[in-house]
Write a structure and sequence with these properties.
Length: about 200
């Protein structure tokens, strides 16, 4: 069954003050590469979506990640308009997937077991058709919602209409009755470089 993670990495790091994707972590790895490596370790299908002018970063990813032959590098034509547009651009290129896990390119500290459990909940779905109930899976740490968030294919049409900078919050709100709250002992689902070391 085809499905996997879409890593959102087309933002402009305005709060951070420089290109966060290039930030070098304590282990010498850039933030984005560390995130990609994490998702490749769990998902056979992994895609990263960059800005349309990110040829240099694309080349760097291919150079430093031997496993990048399993990575789909996508580009957003509308990333300057916000994360919603980036999600929309990405989903339009992945309509053949049965589910997608939306991940943030600056969150490399989730535990692989958390990512595997999100995947497990999505692949056990037997009906992805438009008439079936959708499924959303979101991890919670200490009752606080985190990332990544998984969506079944019957929500792709809505994800493709997203705009602005609110990500997929509107889809989560609209389908809150179909949300699976996955309580995890994993602070990495909340870790944010802007507010934490």
């Amino acid at each position: 069954m085809r499905g996997g993670a879409l890593i959102l990495a087309a933002g402009f790091s305005r709060r951070f003050g420089s290109d966060k994707r290039r930030h070098v972590m304590s282990n010498g790895t850039s933030l984005l590469v560390a995130t990609i490596r994490l998702y490749l370790s769990v998902y056979n299908e992994t895609a990263v979506i960059l800005r349309r002018q990110d040829d240099e970063i694309s080349r760097y990813i291919k150079q430093v990640l031997p496993e990048s032959d399993r990575l789909h590098i996508l580009h957003s034509e509308h990333s300057e308009s916000g994360m919603g547009h980036t999600i929309s651009d990405g989903i339009k290129q992945l309509t053949h997937w049965k589910y997608v896990i939306l991940a943030l390119g600056d969150m490399p500290r989730s535990q692989p077991s958390t990512l595997a459990t999100i995947k497990k909940h999505l692949v056990t779905c037997t009906d992805y058709s438009a008439n079936a109930d959708p499924k959303i899976v979101q991890p919670y740490f200490n009752q606080i919602p985190g990332h990544p968030v998984g969506f079944t294919q019957n929500l792709f049409d809505e994800l493709q209409t997203l705009t602005g900078d609110q990500g997929a919050k509107s889809v989560l709100k609209r389908h809150s009755e179909h949300l699976i709250r996955l309580e995890v002992n994993d602070p990495g689902v909340l870790w944010d470089l802007d507010v934490a070391p």
